[in-house]
Amino acid sequence: MKPDNTPRVIDHDDGDEPLGNHSANIGFDSILAARLSRRAVLKGGLGASLAALFAPIAPVFAGTSTAATSGARASLLGFAPVAASAADQVTVPKGYRVQVLAPWGTPLSGAPLSGTDMPFDPLKASGADQAAQVGSHHDGMHFFPIEGKDPNRGSSSDGLLVMNHEYVEPRFMHATAVGQALTRSAVTLDANGKRAADEVLKELNGHGVSVLRIRRDADGAWKVVSDARNRRVTGLTPIAIAGPVRGDDKVKTRYSPDGTMTRGTLNNCAHGVTPWNTYLTCEENWASYFVNRGERPREQARYGVATKTARYAWDQADNGADEFVRFDAGARAADATRDYRNEPNTFGWVVEIDPFDAASVPVKRTHLGRFAHEGVIFHPAVEGKPVVCYSGDDARNEFIYKFVSAKSYHKASASGALLDEGTLYVARFNADGTGEWLPLKWGHGPLVPQPVNQGEEPDCDCFKSQADVLLNTRLAADKLGATKMDRPEWGAIDPKTGMVYFTLTNNTSRKDADAANPRVNSRWGHIIRWREAGDGVASDPAATRFEWDIFLLAGPPDDSRFAGKPLAAEQIFNSPDGLWFDPDGRLWIQTDISESVMNNGDYAPFGNNQMLAADPVSGDLRRFLVGPLGQEITGVITTPDQRTMFVNIQHPGASTSAADFAAGKLTGTWPNLGRYPRSATVVITREDGGVIGT
Ligand code: FEO
Ligand code: CA
Ligand code: CA
Ligand code: CA
């Protein structure tokens, strides 16, 4: 048959929108019915319902409960809030300054990058060039003081800025895209259905992590400077597999027949910082980067490995190179060590990177589970106690997890090996305000081996080993009856109280409300929090029980709640995502309204994505920053002195339609460095040099 010569466009338009959990785990609707009238929620009559929800746990949270103690002390917030805005700029309060740092394409060498003398032109850069430049789609990040001893103590003018690059927008990367009607996620195939190999390489190298030495000049400006530690970890970097899954049959591939290594980390969303001064990058929407056109095993199907075309069709690279064809995860050879049927099993993990050693091999820490990891957040480490951290699975109706190390933390010897032994738990939020951590421990409860007479391959929800439980974390959590959440995003731990906060960004597929996810068709999202149980007043991070409440319901004035009141018009936001407590106890909240709806219809009053600050004790909430058009705000950290804040602006201009792109008309051009918009970090300081937020 004669080939059709028209180039084809493939478009996973929902490529970064998570799939949903359709398992039979029915959640807790029936329990809820006894406690919360669904009708009241549906009608928006939230006040009474929420008062009822909070009542049983008010004593637990005395002194911290916004509803109970609003106004108990002066607010931690001292800035004048900014208005919602749909302007193509970064807006901050009066008295604050903004500087753009490390935009996509910045050379790792620290060479200058400016509007007039710009070494990076995305359309001219090769795939190899991108490996020596800052990646795209900046996300979670941390500032490591240059001393390299403690992640939160040391220099406030010199350090390593380490950041994630979640994904790419191919139309802004390639000369072949100019003039074509492409959406933000589309890629083009040639007449033979192939992709140019160098474009594939550029996209893989646009993902991952950047390690950048940054320094503040005498004039107050921050710059990327040349340093032997400057490094890119990309979709191609060799990475070791550690923990129970290391060496398992299900991670053996042609590249690593003994199942100990893989190449690359992808869809690096939020991050974590370990008590031993390393960086964790979290693999979120990795599944659709792979395609299996045959029958998908459960470890692919439950996560959404594609069935027709992979998200960017990297498997179709026209040079057929091994590092590209591996994105086709079909079984095609005699056994798994001769093809890439297991390649997707080497993704979906938390990856540890030592930013102070550019030669170090990053490590996938499999005991933290395999899912769409948003980020990971640690309780402060205590000498002689286990290490405890949390991670959310950002997909509709997925779960929140906690890991407790088997071995105790000792500052002198602590390392990533602490994450290789322990217990992974999943959360159940009971309707009465209590909660339980359910262990994903092989051989316990329903997580048992297959009966021998049922053959080798699982044909029931059974598990052969701890490695099998971890590879199929979601299935194991389904079996335990975990609570299906409204897309768990970032977590943060209050330094003053030890309470854990998590954003639940939205869930338009929710048909049945429950106590912890109280709105059907949840378009606006909310923030939940809990306190781990303990003996008496002390809370033990390793406890298996907790008490929770809903901290904030986001939304418009007629459908929101914080500190016992609806959000005022000047406070409204929706789709909370990034979350971080500064050392004083200010909670910074970042938003990710989808570019498909932002500034449209009843999303219009919220304006562009933004960042707010909340004081959980006084019940104050103020909008601090509004970003430019088309982007999301994600990633926030300050220097130890809290006088410099870094915030990431991801995918500016992404709301440009396919037709407008073809016509060369962009919705948003920020930060106005050349032809296209580009993700970048912004540095926020005060004109008077003061602490950010006060
Ligand atoms: Fe990558 Fe759930 O945000
Ligand atoms: Ca996010
Ligand atoms: Ca999000
Ligand atoms: Ca995003």
SSE arrangement:
Elements: E1 8-11, H1 29-33, H2 38-42, H3 46-54, H4 66-69, E2 96-101, H5 127-130, E3 138-145, E4 158-165, E5 186-189, H6 197-206, E6 208-216, E7 222-224, E8 231-233, E9 238-242, E10 261-263, E11 268-273, E12 279-283, H7 298-301, H8 322-325, E13 350-353, E14 363-365, E15 377-378, E16 386-392, E17 396-398, E18 400-408, E19 422-429, E20 434-439, H9 466-471, H10 473-480, E21 485-486, E22 488-493, E23 500-504, E24 526-532, E25 545-553, E26 561-562, E27 576-581, E28 587-591, E29 610-615, E30 620-626, E31 632-638, E32 644-650, H11 658-662, E33 680-686
Parallel strand pairs: 9-14
Antiparallel strand pairs: 1-5, 2-33, 3-4, 4-6, 6-7, 6-8, 9-10, 11-12, 12-13, 13-14, 15-16, 16-18, 17-21, 18-19, 19-20, 20-25, 22-23, 23-24, 24-25, 25-26, 27-28, 28-29, 29-30, 31-32, 32-33
The structure holds MU-OXO-diiron and calcium ion (3 copies).
